[in-house]
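Translate structure to sequence.
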């Protein structure tokens, strides 16, 4: 899911930048549609945050190997 959100965000931003650079979309249109542009950034940031959180959870909850102790039997 995180990879999908990041991919969508990157591709959408790349399309928007290409449209602005080729002149298909004007900067004034981007400013007027700021909510749409901000949504593209939200998808990108949400995907990154989800990936980082998922990785952290996986690291925090992974099984740990048992440690051998040299103390001998407990009395």
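Result:
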């Amino acid at each position: 899911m995180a990879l999908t959100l990041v991919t969508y965000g990157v591709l959408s931003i790349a399309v928007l930048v290409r449209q602005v650079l080729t002149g298909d979309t004007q900067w004034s249109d981007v400013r007027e549609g700021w909510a749409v542009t901000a949504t593209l950034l939200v998808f990108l940031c949400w995907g990154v945050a989800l990936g980082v959180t998922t990785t952290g959870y996986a690291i925090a909850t992974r099984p740990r190997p048992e440690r051998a102790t040299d103390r001998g039997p407990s009395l």
